[in-house]
Amino acid sequence: MRLLTHNMLSSNIKGVTNGFPLRIEVQKVIEKPVDFNPDFLRHMFPMIDWNALVEASRTMGYPDLPDSADAAMLDSDDFLQRFHHSLLELHLEEGALLCPETGRRFPVTKGIPNMLLHEDEVEVSGARAPGKLSGIALFVLSLLPLHFFSHLQ
After folding, report:
1. Phi and psi at residue 102, in whole multiples of 5°?
2. What is the pTM (predicted TM-score) of this model?
3. Which of 70, 72, 73, 113 is nearest to 91 (CA)?
4. How many domains does the chain have?
5. How many C-beta neighbours within 10 Å does residue 55 have?
6. Domain membership of residue 109 as a residue range
7. Strands across the sheet with 23-31, in order?
8. 96 lies in a domain?
């Protein structure tokens, strides 16, 4: 799981009001080279929670991001290279994500976070029958096989 993904995830457990950022429990980190694209990084920068990225990077053994960042730093190739490495090349291969409010562990196996909730953790809305998945859950599940196979080599 890339830190780009981590920066977009939060805990949606029933009753949780502050499910971001998820803490990282590291078992195995790998680095996967990705083509450097400064335009992509400049586009993504405003969408990234910088403090969460810095904390996650340091947890995964990469201390080279500055404590704070602003748009003016996007003109620095050195900054962009560090941002790129942290955001796209560091992968949590094995470990867990932890809800900051409840401590609930979401396992990460082969780089794929399992964010599925237990039945008692789900906010019930509408007249959906027990055990039936929501449209969002079905959509996410439909994406998992594609994501899973992209990691096989």
Report:
1. -105, -20
2. 0.80
3. 113
4. 1
5. 15
6. 3-117
7. 23-31, 90-98, 105-109, 112-113
8. yes
